[in-house]
Amino acid sequence: MIAGGITCKDNSIVIYGAKIGLAPQTFLLILTLISFFLPFIITTIVLKDGEGLRFGLILSWIIFFGVGAWTLRLFLWNVFGREEIYIDDKTIHFHSNYKYFKDNKKIFEKSEAQLIPKPKRWLGNNYFVLVLKTPKDEVETSILINEQDKNVICDYFGLCCIKNR
Questions:
Q1: pLDDT score recorded for residue 158
Q2: Sign of the CA dihedral 120, 84, 13, 82?
C-alpha cells in the first residue's frame, strides 16, 4: 500500500495508507459478509433436513470464519489502515492501526533503536519503508512512502537514523 500522507508531531510519526476505490471496498465487504453469514444458512439447511451436526459442517464453520476474519482485516486495513510510531524519553512504540483494533505492537529501547529508511521499487517508482531496528528485533513498515515524505520524517527528527537520541 502506498502512503496517503504522513503526520509528524508530538514525537510521533503516523503514516496513513492511501484509500482504495469504492469497487474494491465493496468487493471486500461483500466477501466478508458472505464468509460470516453463509455458515448460518448452510447449518439451517442441514439441520432442517435432519442431518444433525457433522464434522464437515463444523470444519466449514472454521474455514468460513477464518476467511471472514481475514477479509475483514484486509477491508479495515485498506479503508482505515495506518502505521504509528511514538517516541518518548526511553522507548519507541510501533503498531499498525486498523481503527477498531491494533496489530504488530512492538516496543523498542530508544538507546538501542535505529529508524532507517529502506529503498523499495514498486511499479517503476522509488519508494521507502521505515525499518525500526535494534540488535534483538526489527520491524518494517508495510506502507510505502515517497522521497518527500521520507525527507519530512528525517527533517522532523533531525537525522534519517535515530540512535541514542
A1: 54
A2: positive
Q: Stretch 35-55: mean pLDDT, rounded?
A: 87
Question: Quick check: 3 and 18 in contact, CB under 8 A?
Answer: yes
Q: Look at the chain and report how many structural domains it folds into.
A: 2
Closest CA to 19 of 62, 80, 74: 80
Q: What is the pLDDT of residue 16?
A: 87
Residue 162 lies in a domain: no
* Stated pTM of the model: 0.78
3-class SS letters over 71-137: HHHHHHHHHHCEEEEEECCCEEEEEEECCCCEEEEEEEECCCCEEEEEEEEECCEEEEEEEEECCCC
CA angle 10, 13, 17 (to 5 degrees): 140
Considering the domain boundaries, does residue 165 fall inside one? no
Given a cut of 50, is residue 165 above it in pLDDT?
A: no
DSSP-based three-state secondary structure for 8: strand
